[in-house]
Write a structure and sequence with these properties.
By secondary structure, the chain is α+β, with helices and mostly antiparallel strands. It has two domains: 1-78 and 236-255, no CATH class; 99-234, Spore Coat Polysaccharide Biosynthesis Protein SpsA, Chain A. The chain contains eleven helices and twelve strands. The strands form four sheets. Strands 5, 7, 8, 9, 10 and 11 form a six-stranded mixed β-sheet that branches. β1 and β2 (30-31) form a beta hairpin. The longest helix is centred in the first third of the chain and has 11 residues, at 32-42. It is globular, with a radius of gyration of 18 Å. The two termini are 24 Å apart.
Length: 255
């Protein structure tokens, strides 16, 4: 986990879990991932596949032995090396089979309405967020928006382009009505071909937004856009833990 605000006040358990790099298991009365899975269950999903590293036995132990979810069935897929989000999607290919499926981050808590809208969409798509909603209704500061993938929507309501952490010159070409991808997608299995074709990013990773752009440009992939005016809780930095704690206080997860 990135250090972020060094003055953030963490409990001993939160600090130890953050140091381990497994952000999804940071405790907020319950592990953050319990809230994520509970949100999926609230949105009507029945199965989830957690992509984990080979060293993350504690996650498997928790969900298979200590606290098996009651409302959503959890499976596991192993990503042998942390090679990026597109590689993580490839790790779940055998779980998916030939079905359309949802992809989301494990360190973000998404609005149930966005997850539900994707479930009933009936075709591949993505939920994109208004910048003002993320900053006013989530815990995301204004200066962080440019670190996400920024998107342009075509006149027909489908995703036209996605730029991962774009330079200022690229942002200018996107126009005024820019929406933010928080990496929540409904894909068909065609995304796997795009993930195999995508080159390494400047960070040396196989990144999912770049794979999506590859799919749009080279494979004719079409993704219907759901415009979301709600916020997302982001657990990228240690400094996020206090704000996430406050916003999760009224939520009792039941995965």
């Amino acid at each position: 986990m990135r250090q972020g605000d060094p003055s953030a006040h963490l409990s001993g358990e939160q600090s130890a879990t953050a140091d381990s790099g497994v952000k999804a298991m940071i405790p907020f009365r319950r592990p953050f991932l319990d809230y994520v899975l509970s949100g999926l269950a609230d949105a009507g999903y029945k199965q989830a596949c957690l992509v984990i590293g080979p060293e993350h036995n504690a996650i498997r132990e928790y969900y298979e032995v200590s606290a098996p979810p009651r409302r959503i069935q959890v499976s596991f897929a192993i990503q042998p090396e942390p090679r990026g989000s597109a590689d993580a999607v490839l790790a779940a290919e055998s779980f998916v089979g030939g079905d359309e499926f949802l992809v989301q981050n494990s360190d973000n808590y998404y609005p149930v309405s966005a997850l539900r809208d994707l479930r009933v969409l009936g075709e591949p798509g993505t939920a994109l967020f208004e910048p003002e909603s993320l900053t006013q209704k989530g815990n995301i500061p204004v200066e962080r928006i440019a670190s996400y993938a920024l998107c342009k929507v075509a006149a027909d309501g489908y995703l036209a382009s996605v730029a991962e952490k774009p330079a200022e010159s690229t942002v200018a070409t996107l126009g005024e009505d820019v929406l933010v991808s928080m990496n929540v997608w409904r894909f068909s299995p065609s995304i796997f071909e795009a993930c195999r074709c995508v080159p390494l990013s400047s960070r040396g990773e196989l990144e999912l937004p770049l794979a999506v752009q590859e799919g749009i440009t080279s494979l004719g992939m079409r993704l219907k856009v759901i415009r979301c005016r709600e916020g997302v809780l982001d657990l990228s930095f240690r400094g996020d833990i206090a704000s996430v704690t406050e916003r999760l206080r009224a939520i009792e997860p039941s995965p």
